[in-house]
Amino acid sequence: DGGITQSPKYLFRKEGQNVTLSCEQNLNHDAMYWYRQDPGQGLRLIYYSQIVNDFQKGDIAEGYSVSREKKESFPLTVTSAQKNPTAFYLCASSMGGGQGAFFGQGTRLTVV
Amino acid sequence: RKEVEQDPGPFNVPEGATVAFNCTYSNSASQSFFWYRQDCRKEPKLLMSVYSSGNEDGRFTAQLNRASQYISLLIRDSKLSDSATYLCVVTSGGSYIPTFGRGTSLIVHP
Predict the structure, then answer these.
(1) Contact indicator for A109, A18 with CB cutoff of 8 Å
(2) B90 to chain A nearest CA, in Å?
(3) Residue B54's closest CA among B39, B66, B46?
(4) pLDDT at residue B1 above 70?
(5) Interior angle at CA A42, CA B80 and CA B21, nearest 5
(6) For residue B24, what is the enclosing H or E element?
């Protein structure tokens, strides 16, 4: 089945730790995105990538890092510098060029 | 001013009703427009694209008004299963980055 997969579904992190969220797609999409959603809020763009080995900061990139070494994969690292990391993280991909984006099931990160 | 604005609702309607949502966007150079549906604690799912000529998919009709910079979604014969949050999405810039509105909550009751 073609799709976009995020793992893990739930993640608990201690303060001061870095954690990496996985995002893999087999849709052959060029563009990939990471969004953050807080309760009752809209989606805010963290990072995006239009092509392998290239990525750009979104609106709230501070405290996050990404890599795009393969077309299929776009992992997000939440670093200890992110002041309020507890949120619902959503990864998406699209063909680019204004086509609709498709989402993974999301990762709920909680800092304990 | 936010790039994409929606009335958060909730819109509370009985089964069978017709309901309409509007969304305004600030960037006149925006290129693509979509409606997504998001169920509670789930990921957003693409509902439909929105074209200048308007488009329909079953009970759902979407319209784009570029002159006034708004898009609309009309749902006819509402079902209980239509209860969800509806997100307006606009892409802009050379990279066609999707920008999301905060969503409009719809509750369909028996």
Answers:
(1) no
(2) 9
(3) B66
(4) no
(5) 45
(6) strand B19-25
Of B46, B49, B95, the CB nearest to A102: B46
| pLDDT tens-digit readout, A69-99 | 999 999 999 999 888 999 999 999 999 878 8
The HSE-up count of residue B103 (CA atoms within 13 Å, CB side) is 24
Q: Which of A89, A99, A110 to mutate to test the interface with B (most CBs of B within 10 A)?
A: A99
Residue A13 is which amino acid?
R
Span B60-69, average pLDDT: 95
In contact, B13 and B19? CB cutoff 8 Å: yes
Residue pLDDT, tens place only, A14-73: 988 999 999 999 999 999 999 999 988 889 999 999 999 999 999 999 999 999 999 999
Q: How far is B96 from chain A (nearest CA, A)?
A: 5
Instruction: State whether A41 and B87 contact (CB < 8 Å).
Output: no
In terms of Cβ atoms closer than 10 Å to its own Cβ (0-12, 13-18, 19+), residue A59 is: middle
